[in-house]
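ARCHIVE CARD
Drawer: 12
Card no.: 0347
Subject: one protein chain, sequence and derived structure
Cross-reference: see card 0346
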Amino acid sequence: MTRCRAIIPALALCLMVPTVARAGAPAGEEILLVGAATLHLHLAANLPLPHPVVVEWVRRAAVAVTNYLGRYPVKELSLTIEPGGHRAVNHGVTHGARDIEVRLGSRTEAADLKSDWVMTHEMFHLAFPTLDDRYLWMMEGLSDYLEPVARGRAGQLTPEEVWREFVEGLPQGLPEEGDRGLDHTFTRERIYWGGNLYWLLADVRIREKTDNRRSVDDAIRAILDAGGNGDAVWSLERVLEVGDKATHTTVLKDLHDELGPRAGAVDLDALWKRLGVKYNNGAVTFDDTAPSAVIRMAITYGRPPGLPTVQP
């Protein structure tokens, strides 16, 4: 689980809904079938909301993750939801590729679950291997980056909400004086927002180098297809090698060399200008004439319409 943040509730319907069904289960357990995956939901009797509302919350997160990855990342998952904590959604923890635990505060309302990011964030941990502790920023940052992107592509956030997340949050991930790089700085802001920034920059650079034909999407799907789920323990070198091979670039390795062992320098204002993202007092608008506006659109919506799929 990551930092606390506010998101305007997204009421839009999902653009792509994978096969998600409810099946018979013992009392206190709900089963969701997500494509070929089975999600066992263990729901405490004293949750602050009716079980169908909680099940729908889980379903929405599963839709966003499946829509992004092309499949649910594991074949079977145990998901325990209990009461607890002071916020609406609390203490999200993912154990390998098998178990997720989340707690709901006593005052949680249905609208809180519609706007929640925690469940989607935790599910993305299922799709990436466990690395050495010094690279926690890469694991947490990936879930942080993919969560709003995937929810946006599934129609659960507007494009403006997705990019407001980045514009308002990513400055927290920039290095401060004395920073020794993402590999050696263990503040919450650098782990989550700094890691998030790494993956956004990687996505932009991969798309720039491949004329928008490859992206972080390809890298993460390749890592998962190679067995790199939450149960796997990989070296950083293997992650970078598999991801870069999938994109036919060296962006992941090169960017780690820039931002991992040293603080590096990132000009966010220049990045937003290049992507055509304008921010004014909490409102986001887009400049579709910006040099890299098409890259922003591709990140937001997925592969641009009419662009041929590159064969491996």
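Annotation on reverse: Residues 20-125 form a domain with the Zincin-like fold (CATH 3.30.2010). The longest helix spans residues 188-209.
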